[in-house]
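Handout, page 2. Input:
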Amino acid sequence: MGLTDTPRSERIHIGIFGHTNAGKSSLINALTGQRISIVADLPGTTTDPVHKSMEILPLGPVVITDTPGLDDKTVLGKERIVRAFEVLRSTDLALIVVDGTSIMGKSELAIIMELNERKVPYVIVVNKIDKMKDIDKRRFDNDPAIKGHVFYVSARNKENINELREYLGTLMKGKIKENHMLDNLVKKDDVIILVTPIDESAPKGRMILPQQQAIRDVLHFDGITMVVQVNELEAALRALKNPPALVVTDSQAFASVDKIVPSNIPLTSFSILLARLNYDILYLSESVKKIKDLSVTDTVVISEGCTHHRQCGDIGTVKLPNLIRRFTGIEPRFKFTSGTDFDESIDGAKLIIHCGGCMLNDKEMEHRMELAKAKNIPMTNYGVAIAYMTGILDRALKPLL
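Output:
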């Protein structure tokens, strides 16, 4: 998998913030060398956060998010500013773009305070140096609140843009960890069997991201991958001279795979591996027990991190609710969320069941878990919930503990 194929969750997330017409869109175009964002003198050109996956050397694969102006005074301006601040949840590096001929406002200072509190590295990019006077530069140089964070550019004239790229690379060096779903689970020449059902809910012509990541991880650790469907699993096990080091299955096939794989062979799921990577796996395993205590008046929030088109037999909206109905013998209330629709949607919930979060980065997943804890709402994930309700959670967790 090349850099351009790097999953969004593993890219450096760069948030671009600033007042209307400070030059945010111009800076993005200059940094990337492409016309990604619309540039205009009209205020409010960017009305909602716009995400773009790119590669910027020496940073590497990044997701750039262009946000609405922090001084947006349109009818929907307040809501757009709220959305701009929400981008901070997944931001690894923030660029606060300031018009060098103007002064910083309260909203920019509020962003800086939030970044300091979250310990997120940031750069105040003072734009339009081609129009600045000496007195303008002294104003920024002498401000103790932003000392050490200021970088001067002209996005329109591409002045100091290469230098800014190099500075950002230096700033982020060593700060983004390389994550592996199968870390400490695969040794050289180990055979790993991946069970990947192809049914009506599988994406056409491709494998889902966790399956791709698992294959890549086995290769990274010099292991050997066997990819099969459930009906091919027994033949795959017979074909091996020695038992596989691990079997990883799609959560939907947990019950069937558990019956086929001998108890002496470690077994887990893609979703549980993601849970270990993105969540506190022990917290999820404790929270899942709340399923048995559900009543007909309780609300279960089932949340997807991405906004893919839900297909026939969708795990989140069809298979999980059906499994909960069978396990509990009751009909609780179900609420479904996707994408960024999470924070307000969980209020009043008895339990949250989240997807594996393969499209969300560490910061966003940490935010969601901490928010659930702050609201005293137990939170688990798809794989843990399915393993629990099929009676094989202990087995599925054993290889990870």
